[in-house]
Design goal:
Layout (H helix, E strand, L loop, with lengths): L10 H9 L3 H7 L3 E7 L7 H20 L4 E7 L15 H4 L20 H15 L5 E4 H6 L4 H9 L1 H8 L5 H6 L3 E3 L14 E3 L4 E5 L5 E5 L5 E3 L1 H12 L3 E5 L3 H13 L6 E5 L2 E2 L16 H7 L2 H9 L6 E2 L5 H15 L4 H4 L3 H5 L13 H11 L4 H11 L9 H18 L10 H15 L6 H14 L6 H12 L7 H8 L1 H13 L2
Parallel strand pairs: 1-2, 1-9, 2-3, 9-10, 11-12
Antiparallel strand pairs: 4-8, 5-6, 6-7
Helix pairs in contact: 1-3, 7-10, 8-11, 10-11, 13-14, 17-19, 17-23, 20-21, 20-24, 21-23
């Protein structure tokens, strides 16, 4: 069957179409379609947190384009979880170490500014999401358990205790299966979350029996103040309680998603539509781990590039494993700028497949200036400066109408280019001397530039191209490699016509003169 081309085909729209059949049920139950993202506040929000919320938002916006049914996004914090290990990136770890296995909202805040460690990280999450303009509703697992929101679900888990065990036990190691229960009781004496066997349960009375840490046998009702659910059961209960319609998760959680879906059906709910994205890899192709710190942080990306470039990176091929390291950043900035430029020429359907439509909620800005990030990086490289105002001197000569006030996005790109140059380009710059053939080509380029009457980038690019061909560079890529290595001291570089137009013919001639003296 031939694929239709009169409707958007990008993956968020494909995902949104899967949701359309849920609209009548969702609208009848909640009055809206509910998207959800989960957050584990045992650590600070990070690039993965942003990625999951951003990608979910892409689908939400596509769905809103297809349906008039209202939507909402639930950002859920699993802050009822017990503290399993002491994070290495916190102050005063000794303040936290006595609270292993306590709920995160009962662990002291090592920063000393919030009610607990969980509350601190929840506040960070909300500030984090707010800073990027995400529209969401926040819920805390602690609040949901303590307020009784989960009590019905807890009783249902008790009622279907054996059926849930039949789902879970085959997935567990023999040792773990011997003591597994859907419930994690909370010690009435210490407040710890206990990993202990449930010795007896009474569905009609709504109680469980377990042995506390001190050997005391305890019978307790199953409610949100006395226990919590094991995480796969907890995930299913959350879907059931709130009627979640859509949730993403990493490829590594596919088996867990499948188990939780079965449990959700046992409870009487309908599991959400799922989307499983691939994980990020470091520069060596190994899976990124928060504990190892072998990848980029959110702060690092935003030092070297605008957040829109990260959004483009997250938009493309979410089901393919991708390297997430510093060297991917410049290309993603260029991709974002190219998408903005392409958007202006596209029809309505193609626009909705363009990443910038999703990133900017259907109303992307126009591109401020034709300068690429690569050109700005190389301008910073040639100027060898930490001062962005030096670059602005060249920019305003090239584009007299440019200014920080009129072109704020360009202003950000200039700052990012300077930072990226200082940290990643400058330490590896290495100029080489020109060969005899290259010297003749450089002299010809110098003469041609000085004789130019039209100083536009396309005219300059044509001159550069023609000289490479005239001097026998085969493939022609070898000529551009010589330009980059001899003039700029690096393996890769910008479109030379654009760079020379920005940097200036006189200044480029001086670069050539210096290069020809190099031995």
């Amino acid at each position: 069957m031939q694929q239709k081309t009169d409707v958007p085909q990008s993956w968020p729209f494909q995902e949104a179409r899967k949701l359309l059949e849920r609209v009548p049920r969702a609208h009848a139950q909640k009055g809206h379609v509910l998207f959800e993202t989960g957050y584990g506040p045992s650590g600070l929000p990070h690039l993965g947190t942003f990625g999951e919320v951003a990608r979910t938002t892409f689908v939400r916006r596509a769905f809103e384009q297809l349906s008039s049914c209202p939507t909402s996004l639930l950002a859920f914090s699993d802050d009822r979880d017990g503290l399993r290990k002491i994070p290495q990136n916190i102050p005063q770890p000794q303040k936290v170490s006595p609270f292993l296995e306590f709920p995160l909202t009962q662990v002291p805040d090592p920063w000393g500014c919030c009610k607990s460690f969980g509350h601190h990280n929840n506040a960070k999450l909300r500030n984090f999401l707010d800073s990027f303009g995400f529209q969401y509703e926040f819920k805390s697992a602690t609040d949901c358990y303590r307020s009784g929101v989960y009590d019905e679900a807890l009783l249902k888990v008790l009622h279907y205790y054996e059926e849930i065990l039949d789902v879970m036990l085959p997935s567990l190691r023999e040792e773990r299966a011997a003591t597994y229960s859907p419930f994690l009781p909370i010690s009435p004496k210490t407040g710890k979350i206990l990993q202990v066997a449930i010795e007896h349960y009474d569905a009609s009375a709504g109680t469980i029996v377990f042995t506390d840490e001190d050997g005391t046998r305890v019978e307790a009702p199953v409610n949100g103040r006395t226990c919590k659910l094991q995480w796969k059961v907890d995930w299913a209960a959350r879907w059931y309680v709130f009627g979640v319609d859509y949730e993403m998760s990493g490829k590594d959680l596919i088996p867990s998603f499948q188990l939780s879906s079965r449990i959700c059906r046992i409870l009487g709910g309908v599991p959400p539509e799922g989307f499983h994205y691939e994980l990020f890899l470091d520069e060596e192709g190994k899976k990124i781990s928060k504990s190892k710190g072998n990848g980029l942080t959110m702060e690092e990306w935003m030092r070297y590039a605008p957040v829109e470039s990260l959004s483009v990176y997250l938009f493309h091929a979410p089901k393919s494993a991708k390297r997430l390291f510093f060297d991917v950043i410049p290309r993603q900035v260029e991709e974002y700028l190219a998408c903005l430029e392409r958007y202006e020429q596209e029809d309505e359907v193609r626009r909705q497949d363009n990443p910038v439509w999703h990133i900017h909620a259907g109303t992307p800005p126009t591109r401020e200036c034709d300068l690429s990030f690569s050109v700005l990086l190389n301008l910073a490289s040639v100027c060898n400066t930490e001062d962005a105002t030096v670059l602005w001197g060249f920019i305003t000569r090239y584009r007299p109408e440019a200014s920080l006030e009129k072109m704020p996005f360009l202003a950000k790109l200039v700052e990012h280019a300077v930072a990226y140059y200082q940290d990643f380009v400058k330490p590896h710059k290495h100029y080489r001397a020109a060969t005899e053939v290259e010297k003749q080509a450089f002299l010809a380029l110098k003469t041609a530039l000085l004789s130019l009457t039209v100083l536009q980038s396309e005219a300059i690019q044509t001159v550069v191209y023609d000289i490479g061909k005239a001097h026998g560079f085969t493939p022609l890529k070898a000529w551009f490699s010589a330009l980059y290595e001899v003039l700029l001291g690096q393996k890769e570089g910008p479109r030379m016509g654009s760079f020379i137009a920005l940097y200036g013919v006189t200044e480029t001639v001086l670069l050539i003169d210096e290069a020809l003296k190099r031995k």
